Amino acid sequence: MASNKKYWKSVEELNKNSSIVASLEQNEFNEGQAPESFLGDKETLESSNTTRRDFLKYVGFTTAAASLAACEGPVIKSVPYVVKPEELTPGIANYYASTIADGFDFANVLVKTKEGRPIFVLPNKEAKGTTNARVNASVLSLYDSLRLKGPKVKGNTASWSDVNAKITAQLKSISESGEKIVFLTGTLASPSTEALIAEFSAKYSNVSHVVYDAVSESAALDAFEETYGERALPNYKLEDAKTIVSIGADFLGDWQGGGFEAAYAAGRDVKAGKFSRHIQVEANYSLTGANADKRIVLKPSEQSYALINLYNAVTGQSLPSKKTPEDAAIKKAAVQLKKAGSKAVVVTGIQDKNAQLIALAINNFLSSEILDTTNIKYVRKGNDAEVASLVVELKAGKVGALITYNTNPVYTLANAADFKAGLQKTKLTVGFSSKEDETLNEVQYALPTPSYLEAWGDVKITANQYSLTQPTIKPLFDTKQFQDCLLAWTGQSVSYYDYLSAYAKSNVVGDKSWNKTLHDGFAKVEATALSAKEIDITAAASTLKSSVKTGAFELTLYSSIALGDGQQANNPWLQELPDPLTRAAWDNYLLVSQADADALGFTNPVQDNGAINGQYASITVKGVVLDNVPVLIQPGQAPGTIGLSYGYGKTKALKEEMKVGVNAFAVAFGGTQIATVANAGGEHLFACEQLQHTIAGRHDILRETSLEEYNHGHAEEWNPRPEVSLKHEEVDVTTVDLWEDHDRSVGHHFNLNIDLTSCTGCGSCVIACHAENNVPVVGKHEVRVGRDMHWLRIDRYYTSEGDAGSSNKPINQASSIDDAAVYEALETPETVNPQVAFQPVMCQHCNHAPCETVCPVAATSHGRQGQNQMAYNRCVGTRYCANNCPYRVRRFNWFKYNNNDEFDFNMNDNLGKMVLNPDVTVRSRGVMEKCSMCIQMTQATILQAKNEGRTIDPNEFSTACSSACATGSIKFGDINNSEDEVTTLREDKRAYRLLEFIGTDNNVVYQTKIRNTNEA
Amino acid sequence: MKIVKLHRKLSSVLKLSLVLFFSFSLSLSAQDTPSEEQAKAGKALFNMHCASCHKLNKKATGPALYKVAERREMDWLKAWIKNNNKLRASGDADAKAIYEEYGGVAMSVFEFLTDKQIEDIVAYTTLGDVKKAGAVAAVAQVEEVDASSGDILSKVATVVVVLILLALIGWVFFKSNNGFLKIASVIILVFLGVYFGFGTLMSVGVDQDYQPVQPIAFSHKIHAGDNKIDCQYCHSSAKHSKTSGIPSVNVCMNCHKNISEVAEGTKVNLGEGRVLEKAQLDKEIQKIYDAAGWDAENLKYTGETKPVKWVRIHNLPDFAYFNHSQHVTVAGVKCQKCHGPVEEMEELYQYSPLTMGWCIDCHKETEVNIKGNGYYKKIHEQLSQKYGVDKVTIAQLGGKECGKCHY
What we know:
The complex is a heterodimer of chains A (1016) and B (407).
Chain A: E1 7-8, H1 19-26, H2 35-39, H3 42-47, H4 52-71, E2 77-78, E3 93-101, E4 106-114, E5 117-123, H5 133-142, E6 152-153, E7 156-157, H6 160-176, E8 180-185, H7 191-203, E9 207-211, H8 218-228, E10 233-236, E11 243-247, H9 261-266, E12 268-269, E13 274-275, E14 277-282, H10 287-291, E15 294-297, H11 300-315, H12 327-340, E16 344-348, H13 353-365, E17 371-377, H14 384-395, E18 399-405, H15 409-412, H16 416-424, E19 428-433, E20 445-448, E21 457-462, E22 465-469, H17 482-489, H18 496-507, H19 514-520, E23 522-524, H20 537-547, E24 553-559, H21 572-575, E25 584-585, E26 590-592, H22 594-600, E27 613-621, E28 624-633, E29 641-646, E30 673-685, E31 687-688, E32 704-706, H23 707-712, H24 715-718, E33 723-726, E34 729-732, E35 750-755, H25 764-773, H26 780-784, E36 793-800, H27 820-825, E37 834-841, H28 850-854, E38 860-862, E39 868-870, H29 880-884, E40 891-892, E41 928-929, H30 935-948, H31 960-964, E42 970-974, H32 981-986, E43 991-992, E44 1004-1007, E45 1009-1011
Parallel strand pairs in A: 8-9, 8-18, 11-14, 11-16, 14-15, 18-19, 19-20, 24-29, 26-28, 32-45, 35-44
Antiparallel strand pairs in A: 1-36, 3-4, 4-5, 6-7, 6-20, 10-17, 12-13, 21-22, 22-23, 24-30, 25-31, 27-28, 27-30, 33-34, 35-42, 36-37, 38-39, 40-41, 43-44
Chain B: H1 8-28, H2 36-50, H3 74-82, H4 84-89, H5 93-101, H6 115-127, H7 133-174, H8 179-202, H9 220-226, H10 231-234, H11 249-256, E1 268-269, E2 275-276, H12 278-292, E3 294-295, E4 300-301, E5 310-311, H13 324-330, H14 335-339, H15 356-365, H16 376-387
Antiparallel strand pairs in B: 1-2, 3-4
Helix pairs in contact in B: 1-7, 2-6, 3-6, 11-12
């Protein structure tokens, strides 16, 4: 490896005395208990209830039963439609453009439906839509068996007509008595719904609408409103940025509604000749920090000072501030900002209006063109102050009616107890939600809403685009849209669809283009630039400075990449998605730094099967105690800070298995909190994949270089060709070969290309792969013991910045794993602020595949299109292939995961099964499975071309992961077509293949990761 | 499950000749006015132009027309048929009344019909269909006897042969002292056991000739054979999709809205003595109406539907991917190649074994139909260069790879 960096996946690997790591590297399968351990145990054997005679009886009976059952096949019924819908051909997928807007995630999507069932959500690229893991997984939430199936009044089922009549009557009497009617909703961003609420306000007196975001951006909204006069969020054209300084803003996560990753990656494209420099200042290790060129570790309190210091350094003023340990680095950042001038931008995630004002001021001082005040964002609108006063009013019994929609305050409010008490004093409480969640359990009227896949709607995500939501399936349950109820309550007899189309026709699109807008899913609209007002920054800075709190531990709450604000907590795909940084699934946990862990006595001991354990902590924030919070040591966590993610610890509308984690909203009092932490001992079992699927110590699989080297160095230095020894001479690896080559010059030859520079590690490809390929969910315990079924995993490697000189010897040979000298140099200090690199790994589709050679039944074989094929019905489960795979990408079905109560996830209920892709086999127990390079999709593309009698267009082929990738990091195509992007990428000077020296000739090509290490 | 009989073809020939014979004899006793000739020409015209809305004995979209000449003047009929709109516009009271009675739905205009043709049609409505029921019934009975005697004979023969063999082996073991014979018979027994055992095991899960009883006695012979309806008229997904598509009931109703009964004398022989005659077959059509929620009396849909639960015959396992459009549209394979002589099947059965070996055999031999398909143009050039031949088989294109069908 050219950069001579040492990569590690878990802190345990830095411990040179750890025998576990070495043994894990030799073991593909951790079978938990070795047979000797219980066969040799006389006591256990004798205490067993099954005698030898019983055992033989069972064997005899099951054999006889199995053979009898095999004699006659079942009679299968085929039930055609009575009247087949015109647009539907059985077996052919239909796609509908739609928009998700659940109050947390907003995106333009395409919904793939088969026989009228939505089965896949992919980004609507025409509308510049990008999808994250949660949006991709939202299709499974549609089939959530715990959805509320009909309206309920005080816990009893009721009819809609009854409910609407009663509510209308009550609203009238409340309105006549002059009492307050309050709508409490999440961010709607829906012009027509807001118009409806306005109509409602005109009909009833004293109506107010309070918007509440569980994960609030209230500070940024307040600051923008004060500066620009509109309650919205600025947009950022990161694709043009030269320098990005982020102080605590996780903009590749869901900071200000997220959705910046595509622009960010476009601004870091070496081929296009631009590469922004990204400096991240943060306490938790966020996804954004993981992608940054330079990560500066500062406590939240210090971040506020750093922001003022940055302002001072950029503008040359001297606003009141304090020193921080990283002032030198901040000064350097300021120099780089000034150098980039109008192409520079500063963003901050500090939940304080004044901090947001200062960030805007720096941008305006730089006259930043990156800050976009024309195409502003409407994806967060919550107002913390209004929510707080609403709770006070509720508690005082001053509200006559409360109607909640798209929000779950009983779960997400820190003062939920006050809110609940207030509900008791309110005459009329109505809750709309698709699930009988915590809030719906507390209100009088629990009303079910359809999923966005069953509903109409309009969404204005940004100012210059009006998007539509359309149903892709008939409502599964007796649900009604919030808007339809509003229409009923205001005495209008039209349906929301009529209202929406009339609204859109008269306000947004012309009469003619309604159908086109619906077809496209969006329409472009005009937006005007806003101009900034003068703001008193000195006052802002001094208020910010005085409001900074310090204490034992500074707690930063964050929304997890998998669960977000927890709306989809009952979605098994998301529960099983490992966190990109910690690689732990099925949990939230307290993140602490190594130093603090040592001080408080927290450890993460590793078990022989690679599983990680931990202790519990009790944390106290403003007198609120959170018990049983498992502790995970996070390298790069700022000492003196802790982190905890939202979205877990829900109690209602969840299957037993999903009731995991603790509710961080209980301590979400806004902004950074001061907490005390105590070690409560105990043993927590994490489902963490840090140490699983390690590839036998061959750490050469990740390559990275600096922008400087890329531009001016020699490619052989940072991306050397692998060599092997032949007749005592080093020759290129392609010179010798163990295998006979197939001829792939005719037809298609598929290649997958993964750019490590633009891969942010967000995990949306993992969920897309689950959805497309019917990958089963295995549950917390199975993930813990390394039996996860992900066909595509995203490995996260830690590495230390600038430690290239720690050893002159390249650490790219398997033998160097024992190199004590290297390890010593790399010990504990590295965990203070390591760099991170992500690497998606799936089956590498080797042209010379070691797995194929060892399969005794030829179940895995090679296709001339470059795909390594797996015939499940032929596989007998010897697992030789997995043992011979250098990339650890094969997954064994230890159990039958469908129709099995032991795995009570979506494949075990009739509703959840509707998400299955009918073109892909549902695998059974005892077979090996792995990435197929979406052969069902490539075959479908080929067949479509054949049916239409045409050649295949360039870049027409795609896989689930490539279509879901927001940044275009994963690209798929045919290298026998010279116009396909992958053809040129394969020959790029950044291109390399994993462990190429083995000579497996992979069809998955990686592009070396580039960091912009330019400090000046 | 039933075994298809070989003598089916023979009996159909016999049937045909008998039908011809009887129809001739019947035609000798035809009436005088209007002439049979006229009625025959009229029937053809009626079926072409009128039958989609009219029936002889039953109200359909338009009124029943049997003996319409007794109710209306010929001149009026001619004027009405040629251009009913004009007739109504002229203020004819009868014409208006009929228009009102049938819900204000105007009849099509047939100005191209000559007076002679209209007279023919009216002649047909007067005479109605010629009956020939007796003849076919006789044939069916003959066939039944034929079938059962053949069955019994072959069964008896098999039993006799087996008994003789068993007796022989028993004699060798218990009565004979010849060691060689004993060893030989053991060897023969082992070989036979292995042979039949292997054969039995290999046929597990192979449902060739599977012929379940369907909820509606639908005869492909009547539809695809006698009436020559194109397979893809009903199985319309076959050219687009992986599934051929069992037609939805609304496709049935395209025709059966007007065909509420079978022709006189129609019979469906389901084998094993199950013969359905007109009375039963009309009830089968009624099942479609029940499914579609069609009220045949009042000629409207009730909205109460009851999907038909057909028994699926061709069951590929979940792990095998098959696509009809690849074979039908791209390769141009005739449906019969895999599904057999469907147009002769009164009750559908699985013609092919649908085993992997059967698929592969075909893929090995069959040349790819590359003509006129833009997709294959370049690939074909490269392949013919590589193999030095002009034609390529599916296998040469990778059609034998596991992953092409198993994913």
